[in-house]
Design brief:
Two copies of one chain form a homodimer.
Chain A lengths: L4 H5 L6 E10 L2 E9 L26 H5 L7 H15 L27 E2 L14 H11 L12 H14 L12 H15 L8 E4 L1 H13 L5 E7 L4 H9 L2 E6 L10 H13 L3 E8 L11 H14 L2 E5 L14 H11 L9 E6 L13 E6 L3 H12 L6 H11 L9 H28 L3 E2 L8 E2 L2 E2 L3 H9 L4 H13 L1 E2 L1 E2 L10 E6 L6 H18 L1
Parallel strand pairs in A: 3-14, 5-6, 5-7, 7-8, 8-9
Antiparallel strand pairs in A: 1-2, 4-10, 9-10, 11-13, 12-16, 13-16, 15-16
Helix pairs in contact in A: 4-5, 4-13, 6-13, 7-8, 10-11, 15-16, 16-17
Chain lengths: ~550, ~550
């Protein structure tokens, strides 16, 4: 039995935070959080060396959980939440951060800002983006169908859609089929057919609790052992490496081509494949995020076709993360499914074996309903026995949230021309789209003016991912604090301005380069000016 | 590269279902589903021996996914869905099954029933249970806050609660903290304090997407390797063995004491612990489901104290699945937390190291809001470093559905006496409770009349789990069809009556005994009569 030294550590003061860094992938550094805090007073008597040991301690839990890293909600966001609490206590912002009264003239705190701006995560409604009226009207009826009895309360198309959705699901309080309600999947299939000009089958569509949940389902199915390799773009959305760490499979990073608007560099991927296979990794899948997160890239049709050809030759499942498909500000979105079907038509036989899964979500786009946790994935070309195993796997968690399933349907099937809600929907939609595009350009322009900062054109998604030059003196200072240079920079940004960003090391970047990711969701331009001012001061301090 | 023979199998006709059985635990048999069906016409050209291989096939995907079994949504429910489709096509029931027009006098189908009754799963609202008005009124405002502008639309307390919830979360469309919105967790802590008479800390509460998601989080953290063992009651809710199969850890079954109202048999557990340790299993945790699923048992305070003492001595984390805490029809619910805190007071030092996690859910109780996928767990006595790892793990899926988080708050904080909604809430609540209790007794009485059937008293939850005697001729007939006797029985029940139940082998049972689980959620008594009639015919056929 024996006494573990760990049990003695739990009496340390609350909120002592320390951050540790490690790099399982070259260039990809996550933030690992460890905190020790006082246990609740009522839970324990004072510690003594004879206290019986607990079953669980940091050294004996699942090592893969410990290994998983997720910087988007890592050390800097956690510190920003502490600042938010201080400001909320001082009465300058609300605890949820959604509704700030930031222009309080007599701040009752010592922070150099009156507001925390969460630019670390694509969370539009937290930053004041208004939900689309049509969608929320329908959802309110689904929650309380008696609202239908009030004749004049809602437009006709809202009432009709709500009635139709209720016919499909029965009640949003009832479990649906594990794969999602059939009637809603039929509607999603229709949307995909119209988007791509190729048929889609509702049986191949799985409604999910957000794209993250779908990605986890697929990676769990695909990865058979430690040796299973999945090609991951670098920089990437850290969900992928975190999930692979949990499953204990092997992420195989490939670098995106920054000077070429972060395009997918197919010859470079071939090189990685050769190296990984030589090292004994059995490659099974390739992840592509288009439009890119964190890069903001939008891939060309040719670039997508090249990836599909590679996957066909190398027998790789394509995992296409297409959650930003409507967040395209320059150029056009091409779905992997459409390009694959076109290739299959052009070259019969050559691409028929390709397996593709495409993810979509209600969290992004112009609706930004991330709090509802909903999305879908479509399986294309999968072995039906494998598909049956995926069905079984999702059935263990019963079903995705039903109100979220309905929200997916509302997202892909907006009010039709001539219906009562059409004009308002379009107006709201276009204002959001216009604001996003405008802000992306304003932020991009600001980066262009900053010393030692360069940033690719904002083509899509909700992020910019500029390269920053960090002066040697700052690199030295970071080292002293046990921080990576970009993490040091982002922490300084937060401390000085209240703007929460994520260091490039959380997503991965080429050795010796430094970046950070910021959303362009926050309204106004004041925060951009603050960022500019901070950067100038930072450079002056550390270049001097 | 080579060509796999599996790719050739995918051109077989749609819907060829076959069921295979295996038994990883003695007495526990799940239903494994394999189906092969035609791929969508547009997806493939005709198969030839030279078709390039797919990356994934049944033989190379994650073996742990294949191993996982989940009978509650297994072969029989899948067949029931097919019946439902036939009836829907014939116009006798709706596709969702929620709203049946079952008394159609001229059925346009060949089935011997006009309605499918899904008694396989605790899905109250699918079977017509009405959501509680107060709860859904508040949720409708959360989805569409502009409803607050309509003065007379909702009672004052509904409006006030909605406003308060909106202050906490900002918007239900925004991500919350990964652990759940702080203001709501404070409310949950208050509820636990009032329920148990002992303090609770909001920092120890994690809001979740249903209890299933919480169980998965905990098992993922606890299980470090294949050798990690978790004690699982038999019969059990198959989520536990399915999740352990996915994680590749070791379920260690312990049998519940059927003649003693399915009590937890602590001496028997000690025997299992000794055996498991001798076999090299490192035991870490014990799962207790109270009130029981599928057993319907409600544990006594003494029984709970005995389990806690065992866990304290053996250094086991207690995983208390308490989702049916308000579904108690005889006796009283005692939470593990309350009993633990009482023990800690009575015997200082002896129980301080005990680690307990308690799960709760909005899916059951009198609200039955399973489609919303929401719940919480409370950690008690956990090492704070381990707790930080759990926080990191849940942060990878971002946050639980926010509307569901609000629903948790509404569940644990119903309208107060004197408020406008109080009377209606209580009336609706009590009708549901009374109906459940009444139906549990009626069904129990019916089982008492059936030949060779015996059933423990219905104390709690939503299920009865009778023992059935299956005549040797029926066992023989089952064997011929490659089915377990209880699976054969349940399939016959479905084919003859449209009532979908789950065979005891899906939950585990003592060798040579046979059971099935049925909910008592379906309204009316007609289906119970059908069941009686079926049983009599079955016995006559196979006893003769």
């Amino acid at each position: 039995m024996g006494w573990s030294p760990v049990t003695r550590r739990i009496a340390i003061t609350r909120s002592r935070l320390s951050f540790h860094y490690s790099s399982p992938i070259p260039g990809l550094v996550g933030l690992k959080l460890q905190y020790t805090s006082a246990v609740h007073q009522n839970q324990t008597t004072p510690m003594s060396t004879s206290a019986p040991r607990k079953a669980l301690n940091l050294s004996n839990i699942n090592p893969h959980v410990k290994k998983a890293e997720y910087a988007v909600r890592g050390a800097i966001p956690i510190k920003s939440e502490e600042y938010r609490k201080i400001l909320a206590a001082a009465g300058t912002v609300s605890a949820s951060g959604s509704d700030s009264a930031s222009q309080n003239t007599t701040p009752n705190h010592n922070l150099p800002f009156n507001d925390v701006i969460s630019a670390n995560i694509g969370n539009p409604q937290q930053l004041g983006q208004k939900p689309l009226t049509f969608i929320r009207q329908v959802l309110s009826i689904l929650e309380y169908p008696a609202l239908l009895e009030h004749e004049g309360l809602f437009p006709k198309d809202v009432r009709e859609r709500a009635k139709w959705l209720l016919e499909q699901v029965g009640s949003v309080g009832a479990y649906s089929q594990s794969q999602g309600c059939f009637g809603l999947r039929k509607s999603v299939a229709r949307f995909i057919e119209e988007r791509d000009g190729h048929p889609a089958d509702p049986d191949d569509i799985f409604l999910t609790a957000g794209a993250s949940s779908g990605v986890s389902t697929l990676l769990h199915t695909i990865c058979a052992s430690k040796e299973t390799g999945v090609l991951i773009p670098i920089p990437q959305y850290p969900l992928y490496t975190a999930t692979l760490a949990l499953i204990d499979a092997t992420p195989v990073p490939y670098y995106l081509d920054e000077p070429l608007s972060w395009a997918t560099d197919v010859p470079a991927i071939r090189g990685e494949i050769t190296k990984a296979r030589a090292a004994g990794t059995e490659l099974r899948a390739i992840v592509v995020i288009n439009p890119g997160n964190p890069t903001g890239a939008t891939l060309t049709e040719q670039n997508i076709a090249d990836v599909i050809s590679l996957a066909a030759e190398e027998h790789l499942v394509i995992m296409a993360d297409e959650v930003y498909q409507t967040n395209v500000y320059q150029g056009e979105f091409h779905s992997f499914k459409k390009v694959l079907r076109n290739l299959q038509k052009e070259s019969p036989g050559k691409y028929d074996h390709v397996e593709l899964v495409s993810f979509h979500s209600v969290s992004k786009g112009m609706i930004g309903e991330c709090g509802h946790r909903a999305g879908y994935f479509e399986l294309v070309g999968f072995d039906k026995e494998v598909q049956a195993q995926i069905y079984k796997l999702v059935s263990i968690t019963l079903c995705p949230p039903v109100i979220g399933q309905c929200l997916v349907e509302l997202m892909i099937n907006p009010p039709k021309k001539g219906s009562e809600s059409y004009d308002l929907y379009n107006k709201e939609h276009n204002v959001i789209f216009g604001d996003l595009r405008e802000r992306s350009q304003a932020l991009h322009k600001a980066f262009g003016k900053m010393r030692g900062v360069s940033c690719q054109d904002p083509l899509g998604s909700m992020y910019l991912f500029p390269t920053i030059t960090i002066p040697p003196k700052a690199i030295e200072a970071a080292k002293k604090q046990g921080q990576k240079p970009d993490e040091f920079y982002c922490m300084k940004v937060l401390d000085a301005t209240g703007i929460c960003t994520v260091p490039g090391s959380g997503f991965g970047q080429k050795e010796g380069t430094w970046h950070f990711r910021t959303t362009f969701l926050a309204p106004g331009t004041e925060w951009v000016e603050k960022l500019e001012k901070f950067h100038e001061a930072f450079m002056t301090e550390y270049e001097g």
